[in-house]
Every structure is written in C-alpha cells, then in structure tokens.
Amino acid sequence: MLRHPEKADQLRQLKWEQVARLQPDLVVSTNFGCALHLNSGQQKGGLKFVHPIRLLADRL
Q1: Could you read off the pLDDT of 23-55 as tens digits, one per residue?
Q2: Sign, CA torsion 2/4/10/15
Q3: Diameter of the chain by CA atoms?
Q4: What 8-state DSSP symbol labels residue 45?
Q5: Cα–Cα–Cα angle for 24, 25, 27, nearest 5°?
Q6: What are phi and psi of 47, to 5 degrees?
Q7: Which of these, 44, 28, 41, 30, lies nearest to 1 by C-alpha position?
Q8: Which long-range contacts (C-beta less than 8 Å, at least 24 apart) are formed by 13-20?
Q9: What is the model's pTM?
Q10: What's the rounded Cα separation, in Å, for the pair 60 and 57?
C-alpha cells in the first residue's frame, strides 16, 4: 500500500467487489494494515473490516 499505492487501490477495489457479493455485515482480518487500507478510500457500502481483537473488544 505504501510502495505501490496504485496497485494497492486496485486490489482493494477487487476485494470490496468480491466481499460485497457475499453481503456480510462484517469482515475480520488479522492484518491491521490490510484492514486499515480496506477501510480507507471510497465508500464501500457500509462494509466494515476489523481485527479479531477489535471484534472481541466490541462484543465485551
């Protein structure tokens, strides 16, 4: 994402499209950087990417 922002943005768009087809309420990613990048940028239909620890913290 930092070294190749154009490529990262293309991959992010592909991920958004793939995940949107499944229509989940939430997507869990163990990679903070990945979740941060997926949550950034254009609107993604309210889809939220979180780390498992954040998911647990929110549920407590």
Answers
A1: 888 899 999 888 888 888 765 567 888 999 999
A2: negative
A3: 38
A4: T
A5: 70
A6: -70, 135
A7: 41
A8: 16/44, 16/47, 19/47, 20/44, 20/45, 20/47
A9: 0.73
A10: 5
